From TrEMBL:
<dbReference type="InterPro" id="IPR036010">
    <property type="entry name" value="2Fe-2S_ferredoxin-like_sf"/>
</dbReference>
<dbReference type="GO" id="GO:0016903">
    <property type="term" value="F:oxidoreductase activity, acting on the aldehyde or oxo group of donors"/>
</dbReference>
<dbReference type="InterPro" id="IPR002888">
    <property type="entry name" value="2Fe-2S-bd"/>
</dbReference>
<dbReference type="GO" id="GO:0046872">
    <property type="term" value="F:metal ion binding"/>
</dbReference>
<protein>
    <submittedName>
        <fullName>Aerobic-type carbon monoxide dehydrogenase small subunit (CoxS/CutS family)</fullName>
    </submittedName>
</protein>
<dbReference type="InterPro" id="IPR036884">
    <property type="entry name" value="2Fe-2S-bd_dom_sf"/>
</dbReference>
<dbReference type="InterPro" id="IPR012675">
    <property type="entry name" value="Beta-grasp_dom_sf"/>
</dbReference>
<dbReference type="Pfam" id="PF01799">
    <property type="entry name" value="Fer2_2"/>
</dbReference>
<feature type="domain" description="[2Fe-2S]-binding">
    <location>
        <begin position="25"/>
        <end position="113"/>
    </location>
</feature>
<dbReference type="GO" id="GO:0051537">
    <property type="term" value="F:2 iron, 2 sulfur cluster binding"/>
</dbReference>
<dbReference type="InterPro" id="IPR052914">
    <property type="entry name" value="Aldehyde_Oxdr_Iron-Sulfur"/>
</dbReference>
Length: 120
């Protein structure tokens, strides 16, 4: 989930800790009948199997893309002075805290990459 636009570990956050904050969950991403671009990309790239982690993967990816746009480096960012290029290794590192028990990682990375060109 996103709190004030930043991704957090919702399983480690008490609701009372977010009083007055802007909270976005997977349900708040679509507008009208139109899916968020990352939701659509996960469908197009088959970025899920059982679906258990999908909500967290998508919300985390939205936060991760915002971090990259803001110039925040990761542990694998090669050049800290240049704009971040979100290749597969960079996306895998930035999303490494999100676990998928079905191992849909290649498709998750493909879905994020398909959107990252527009968002990063």
């Amino acid at each position: 989930m996103l709190v004030n636009g930043r991704r957090i570990n919702s399983c480690l956050t008490l609701a009372v800790m977010c009083e007055g904050d802007d909270i976005t969950t997977i349900e708040g991403l679509a507008h009208g009948g139109q899916l968020h671009p990352l939701q659509q990309a996960f469908i197009e790239h088959d970025g899920f199997q059982c679906g258990y982690c999908t909500c967290g993967q998508i919300c985390s990816a939205i936060g991760m893309l915002a971090e990259a746009r803001a110039g925040m480096p990761s542990h694998v960012t090669a050049d800290l002075t240049a704009n971040t290029t979100l290749g597969a290794a960079e996306i895998r590192e930035r999303m490494s805290g999100n676990i998928c028990r079905c191992s849909a990682y290649p498709n998750i990375v493909a879905a994020i990459r398909s959107v990252a060109g527009d968002a990063a």
